[in-house]
Amino acid sequence: MSATTRWRDTITKAGIGEIVDQMTSPVQDDERSGSYFWKNIRCRRVFEDPVLQKMMLNGEEISYSAVHYSYDAVTAGDVPDEDRILAKNGLIVIYRSKGKTYYIVDQNSTAQKLLRKILGYTGKSEIQKSNFDFPGDFFVWLVSRVYNSDCEIANTATDEEKVLELEEIKGIRGNTEDLQTIISASGESVMNVISTLSFLLESRKLNQVILNLRYSEHENICVKIQNATVEYQRPYKGVFEEDPQNDPDQFSAKLYLLLYLEILPLLEQEYRSNLDTEAWGPSAYRTFLQELKDNIIQKIEEKINSVKQ
């Protein structure tokens, strides 16, 4: 899967099995009007077993299923269709939580249209966004937690306490160039500290972090978090590798449910808690930048002193 978004169904009373039946039924092509249309829209079941899949997440038993979609996106024009077709395919995870139905889709700008097409919706507001709304300083907060080796976050909402460990920042992005230098809790090189400080000073707002995590039975989860999208990146190492089916769609469905229903809420809760207790805020941000500056000066002085006269 690529970057995902989450959506809530505001009208359905159907069960997940009925929703999957609707999604896998025939879908009409777009009318050939305008400069762009879809055709050959199809969905197939990911789980052939009619019994719904279930996972315990954040203290709640979650029922879920998934479909794999495909369609041809056609740009209008005078040349033959086959010269103007871009094949699209991906995954939709359907789940219910606290009595509401949600969809995780590996699309962003076209996700709502895709869901409306395969669900047969023709009205308004049936499908609404349900993404995490992370402000810019959330990403700086993550960087500061890893940089200062304050990396453990306990999840007490589950039956058995789990600990989320922020292992390293693999990249950050703002309104300047990407920073590719890895920021880890294990120690910083001079160039790492300098590049981190200069990036944070130059970029008025961060909007993306690529983060390596360890969580319970999951030894490594690499995830790219942005304001509106979430995307896991390889490699993954953990209990989901033990699935005898070894099906990539089934693996993605479980991992995205874990991210959306346990890991991201835990990060958001910890961030909000730090704001409430003033462990994070404008003053803490200034302190973080000062620590980076002092660290640069110390490391440069150490380097100068180590050079033989």
Summarize the SSE layout with pairings:
Layout: E1 5-9, H1 16-23, E2 36-45, E3 53-57, E4 60-75, E5 85-97, E6 100-105, H2 111-119, E7 127-129, H3 136-147, E8 152-155, E9 162-173, E10 183-184, H4 190-202, E11 208-215, E12 218-226, E13 230-238, H5 248-276, H6 282-306
Antiparallel strand pairs: 1-6, 1-7, 2-4, 3-4, 4-5, 5-6, 8-9, 9-10, 9-11, 11-12, 12-13
Helix pairs in contact: 4-6
Notes on the protein architecture:
31% of the residues lie in helices and 33% in strands. The protein is built from six helices and 13 strands. The strands form two sheets. Strands 1, 2, 3, 4, 5, 6 and 7 form a seven-stranded antiparallel sheet that branches. A hairpin with a 6-residue loop joins strand 8 and strand 9. Helix 4 packs antiparallel against helix 6.
Q: Which shape, going by the Cα principal axes?
A: globular
Largest sheet: 7 strands, antiparallel
Q: How big a fraction of the residues is strand?
A: 25-35%
Radius of gyration, whole Å? 23 Å
Q: Spans with pLDDT under 50 lasting ≥5 residues?
A: none
Task: Sketch the topology as an H/E string, one letter per element.
Answer: EHEEEEEHEHEEEHEEEHH
DSSP helical segment count: 6
E-strand count: 13
What structural class do you assign from the helix and strand content? alpha+beta
Q: Distance between termini?
A: 56 Å
Share of residues in helices? 25-40%
- Average pLDDT, rounded to a whole number, is 86
